[in-house]
Specification:
single chain, about 250 residues, binds fe (ii) ion
Length: about 250
């Protein structure tokens, strides 16, 4: 799927796109009364437990405005890639547990599994919605204006990010696949996310996302984030999520 600026949508966004297309196909097939396809769509195939692979940055590391090549590279190569590697290790450890494994051990591994999996997903959404010019237009932008009031959603997202400054967490603009509503949420430990929600815009407010360039000045980092926002990617995610809602109805 192409976007207006020529920046490629993240590889895993394409996988989601494939999943939505597959869901739509299944729904259409059910309506027609025919048997569903025996195999899932190619893009829907999961990598398998312990076999997740880090995705490359979807833009040149030195191309951002106000976010240095050194910082974004460290963020991608250390923090994000580390989460993917740890996810693989945890999944392998879980698969190796015997039925009589101590409950506390399994509980701890399950906790870490969710942390690393969500960290992987949210980081891929974060890197995927950077590399743009910050300009916004489209169906989502129009809807945000009517749902929140003109400019209000961005003010609320910025205020939410400021609330996480000096701490850690994610600011996520998401679409609920449960009732179709838009929501701005603040999530800590990579795990506090909207249940059955599709992330549309992800802003990393963990200190590793800005400390190298900005120290404690998280307000300047938030400014830089919105300058580099690839809104066309956010709009494309919204479009796919709305199609998913229709397919799930
Ligand atoms: Fe991060």
């Amino acid at each position: 799927m192409g976007v207006s600026t020529g920046m490629s949508i993240h590889r895993r966004d394409l996988l989601v796109s494939g999943a939505v297309s597959g869901a739509a196909l299944l729904a259409a097939t059910a309506v027609a009364g025919a048997a569903p396809p025996a195999k899932p769509a190619k893009g829907k195939t999961p990598p398998g437990l312990g076999k997740h692979e880090p995705a490359p940055l979807p833009f040149k590391a030195g191309s951002l405005t106000g976010i240095s090549e050194k910082m974004i590279t460290a963020h991608h190569d250390k923090n994000y890639t580390g989460a993917v590697k740890n996810l693989n290790k945890v999944e392998a450890d879980l698969a190796a547990q015997k039925p009589d494994a101590p409950a506390y051990l399994v509980a701890g591994l399950r906790d870490k599994q969710l942390t690393y999996f969500n960290s992987m997903v949210l980081h891929e959404h974060y890197f995927g919605n950077l590399g743009g010019n910050g300009k916004r237009s489209g169906a989502l932008e129009t809807r945000l204006g009517s749902d929140f009031g003109a400019g209000a959603w961005e003010a609320q997202a910025r205020a939410t990010a400021m609330g996480l400054g000096g701490g850690s967490g994610w600011v996520i603009l998401g679409l609920s696949l449960h009732d179709g509503s838009l929501a701005i949420t603040a999530g800590g430990n990579h795990t506090q996310t909207l249940a059955f929600g599709a992330p549309l815009m992800a802003l990393d407010m963990y200190e590793h996302a800005y400390q190298q360039d900005y120290g404690a000045d998280h307000a300047a980092y938030i400014e830089a984030f919105f300058k580099n926002l690839a809104w066309e990617v956010v709009e494309a995610r919204y479009d796919r999520a709305m199609k998913a809602i229709a397919a799930l109805a």
